[in-house]
Every structure is written in C-alpha cells, then in structure tokens.
Design brief:
With 154 residues, the protein is mainly alpha-helical. Helices cover 86% and strands 0% of the residues. The protein contains six helices and no strands.
C-alpha cells in the first residue's frame, strides 16, 4: 500500500530545499517566524473558541492577552529580521545566505508537515485525515516524526 503521507513529506522536503535556497537564510527565517506565529495564532484561536463555548471567561482573557503579546513580539522580530536581510545582501554573505537557507526551508516544510499531522489528529480533514493518521501509525519514520511533534497535545 502506498503511504501518501510519506510521499507528501518527501515532496515537501524537496520543495523546502528548493525554496530555502531561492529565498535565503534571513528571508527564510522571516518566513519561518511568520509561519510559527501563524500556527501559534491558530491554536490560540482554537483555545479561545473552546474557552468561549465552555464559558471560561478567565481562560478567554488570558488567551487574548497571549495573542496581543504574540503580535507585539512578532512585530519586533520582523523589524530585526528586515535589517538582517539587508546585511545578507552583501556579495560575500549572499551565497552563504542562500546555502544556509536550505536548512531553513527544510525547517519550514517540517513545520507545515507537523501541522498537517496535528490537524489530522484533531479530525479537521475528514477521511483524508484518517488516511494521514493510518499512514503515520503504520510507518516507523512517520511515527518517530510524530513522537517529536510539538504541535500534538499529549
């Protein structure tokens, strides 16, 4: 049986290498920070929705405060990374920036992959999600990746 989740992971890995080299390290870090901020925002919004539905106003207020802090920190980091990107455009540093970008591209795609698996376990993808869960549980590599998936609630 073909493990489509593993194939998707390999395609994402190849795409990550290509995108990371094209974009470079500093811009890739900026994209990775944005992706992580988006993922955290998504999970915080899910927590906020659950808190509101269950009537837990204290948790709702805490979640909103965390969202505001996340937005502020993201804005500061974005400004710092923009100036670092300008420095990386210097001729000697430009090639090093592109080569180091490969690692960031792989990290970026790994985060997307872990998000795909996490949302599948939450039941958000229907029958596709069930296929992903089955593929993860029947493959040693995917089981190992999922073991260290920080997006999965334990």
């Amino acid at each position: 049986m073909i493990n489509t989740t593993l194939i998707i992971g390999m395609i994402l890995g190849i795409a990550g290498i290509y995108i990371g080299f094209k974009v470079g390290f500093t811009k890739g870090i900026s994209h990775l920070v944005a992706l992580i901020a988006t993922i955290l925002t998504l999970f915080l919004l899910l927590m906020l929705t659950a808190s509101i539905q269950t009537g837990q106003s204290r948790n709702s207020v805490i979640t909103v405060i965390i969202l505001v802090i996340l937005g502020t920190v993201y804005g500061i980091v974005k400004v710092l990374l923009k100036s670092a990107h300008k420095v990386s455009e210097l001729p000697l540093l430009h090639q090093l920036d592109k080569i180091a970008g490969i690692l960031v591209g792989l990290l970026w795609m790994t985060a997307i992959y872990m998000l795909l698996i996490s949302l599948s376990y939450r039941g958000l993808f229907g029958s596709f999600g069930e296929q992903v869960i089955s593929d993860v549980e029947n493959n040693g590599i995917l089981t190992l990746i999922n073991k260290y998936n920080i997006l999965m609630p334990r």
